[in-house]
Write a structure and sequence with these properties.
Rossmann fold; single chain
Length: 248
Amino acid sequence: MADYKNWWDDFFGEFRPFFSKIPTSVSNQEAKYYLKKLNLKKGDSFFDCPCGIGRISIPLAKQGIKVTGIDIAPTYLSELEEKAAKLELPIKLYHMDMRKVNFENEFDAAGNLWTSFGFFDKESDNFLVIKKIFNALKPDGRFVMQVVNRDWIIKNFSTRDWHEFDGMRLLEQRKFDYRTSKNISTWNFVRGNEEHPVEVQIRMYSYHELENMFEKAGFVDVHGFGNIKEEPISFNTREQFIFGRKPK
């Protein structure tokens, strides 16, 4: 039986080249959208949880937003720290598990982006991430989660995918557990003759499930879209952009 405990320890180092598949223009468009939807103005604070290599943190910081980021991958934090220093952007960074966030009433807005949710085996731990972000926000603070849509996955499910980029080949083999809504996969990272398989298990969510979790955590005005054009979430929208506000 595969061991999925703390799969992220092995996964994210291998996954790093995958970020090169996202054009900078796409990241900038999303950051611009978040600025508007979260009502962020120069001098406001944003909590990027987790921040990765700064795909959204950097463009927000360039607009004068005071960004604080956490991540479980030390190499990502080091890379982002180096980028921020070169650009003279004062981004605060912490090596931290999302479940152990301890900020209280500190940020004007927060984001959990690019399907950085559902990582944990216990449903209570996944919910805890939302609750911790709720606590980190100031009253009237706003939160956005961008995550793959479970309903789209069901409609478009495939058992394997091939990718090639930056001298690496990737074979992802997957199965879907309909009882737990977990996408269970093996990511085979191949460089030359070397192959490194990593077992990954991520809980996938439908819109109504996330809406319920947001409201249980205390968020109000919860609503969602299938993309930044704000089309409705459906079986045909791969992503979900879900928003909530902490009451005043």
